[in-house]
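Dear colleague,

Thank you for sharing your sequence with our group. We've completed the structure prediction you requested, and as agreed, I am returning the results in plain text so they can be pasted directly into your records. Please verify that the sequence below matches your submission; if there's any discrepancy, let me know and we will rerun it promptly.
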Amino acid sequence: MTIQRLRTALMAIFVVAAPLAAHANAPDPNLILETLAALETRVAALEDKNREYKRELDQARAQLRSDSAKTVRLANAAMPPREPVPSPVNIPQPRPGWSGFFLGASAGGAATRSQTNSVERATNGPSGFNASDLSGPASNGGGFIDLFAGGDVQVSRLVLGGQLEASIADLNFSSSGTRAYSYFDAGGPTGATATGDYRPQVTARWLASALLRAGVLLDDNTLLYGFGGWTFGRFEARNVTDNPFYQPNETFWANGPTGGVGIERKVDSNWRVRAEYRYTRFDGARTQDQYAFTFGGATTQAYTRSTLYEQSMQSGRIGFAYAFNPLR
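Please find the predicted structure tokens below.
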């Protein structure tokens, strides 16, 4: 209740009580007014004190809010700012390099080129013949499957390495030509000659290669390289004569340089695919043997034969390799 309301209520009581005081034995009205005035003064003092308490309370609340905000700011300032963590998708993953060991396989086909030169000479007997055989050059082909193992070392954008390789093959190096005969008797050459077919059938069954390679990275996953080395081949030869009484089957080894180019691409951190072109030139391989014709239990004529095989091939292959623990 405010002072004004209290004053109004006291005046209303006084107006009602004044007539009654005139007829009754009541206290002095002036005394009542003085008492009311004292009460009014007391109420005003209490209201001033109440307003002062309210101001102090509001100031205390404001100070508390200010202190709380300051404490939060200081706590945040004491903690280092948190750097945003990039999304795992955006974190660049380190790519493995090309240094390391690998195993792989490849398959392909080849265009072959071959030529054979054979000479037969009689070594005894009063009569007989000498023969000179020449076939080719002839072109054929075939296929093969390779297994290889090797290693690479990466130096900046360069990759150096090598591999060993073994191949199962069915490569046709056959050719055809003519055999020329010249006859003789006890008096020497008779002047008689003849010709016949000469069709040696030559096949390569096994190949082995030792290769070195050097390449440059077109990007982190693509290697363009060249290589060179040496290739060994095991060959089988049949039908090297047209004599129905003598058809030897021979095996021999030939070897020669190999060179080519290739490109290799990473599929992931371990798997790679590659494609290559190669040229191989086998050095001439020579075989020699002896045979004799026997009639009635007696040797009538003995011969020696020397054959030179010359072969080359161009090949293409596609393969894959698995790299073991590539160094990063």
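Summary note from our side: The two ends are 88 Å apart (CA to CA).

Kind regards,
the structure core
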